[in-house]
Amino acid sequence: MQQQNGFLGMIFPIVVFVLVFYFLIIRPQRKRQKEHENLIASLRRGDQVVTIGGLFGTVKEVKDDSFILEVDEGVKVRVLKSAISFKRAEAPAQHSKAEEGKSAS
Asked: Which CATH fold topology does 2-90 show?
């Protein structure tokens, strides 16, 4: 009987440690991974995104494993789907030179 109590007393802290590890590390990481996969699957042509390197761009083409992003007029970059960090909520304001001249006056 004494050996069973010793065994349970030794296993209980390990079980608690595994449960804490699961709920604090593994479960949130899986949730973030699933959200990122859903984000990648939902991206379409014209969406504005930011890469993990901080590059802002507009999706011009969706390929099997990558996106073609336009980072400036006529400048296109091919990036892996996993390199997309997040989708921008709103488009940046495009100011014409005339508007900039008015605001500077």
From this structure: SH3 type barrels. (2.30.30)
